[in-house]
Each structure stands twice: as structure tokens, then as C-alpha cells.
Amino acid sequence: MTSSQQKPPxxxxxxxxxxxxxAKVEEAVAARDDLAAALSGAGVQLPMMDVRTPxxxxxxxxxxxxxxxxxxxxxxxxxxxxxxxxxxxxxGAAR
Length: 95
Hints:
Blueprint: H1 23-41, E1 50-52, E2 71-73, H2 79-93
Region (Disordered): 1-26
């Protein structure tokens, strides 16, 4: 993939409208951005990467409390992209 074909950086947004970003969310966003940059440098572009936090509690507690953790969601990708990702991982593991 050439630099003219690279997509713009992923947006920095907080999960779930109205919920504040926490240190865990910021850590996950930084990890997502780092992974996206590394994959892009290896010629692999995942179509959808996002940061997700747990669903708000439904037991009547305040759902505005900070997220205890956040996960980097890699989304879905086509078979050719999955093969490219596997090749990059194998190449790195062989070092």
C-alpha cells in the first residue's frame, strides 16, 4: 500500500455518547492507534478498528461512572486481509 492510498488516522472518540474518557479508555485508544500504525506500516489495513467499553450496568446504578476497562475491537476483514495479517504475524514470529 502506498502512502497516497493510506487512510487518515482513526478518530479519537470516547465510547458511548456522554460517557467520559477514562485512563483505561485512553490506554485502549492509544493501543488501537499503535496497532493500526504498525499494521499500516506492514501493508495491512483493517477496515474497522474501535474501542469498546462494557455495557452500562442495568441494575439501577449510575451509568455515568468511568469504565473499568476498555477493549480494542478489531472488527471484521476480508479473507485477503486476514491472509495478509497472518503473513505479517508469521514473518514477525520467525525473527
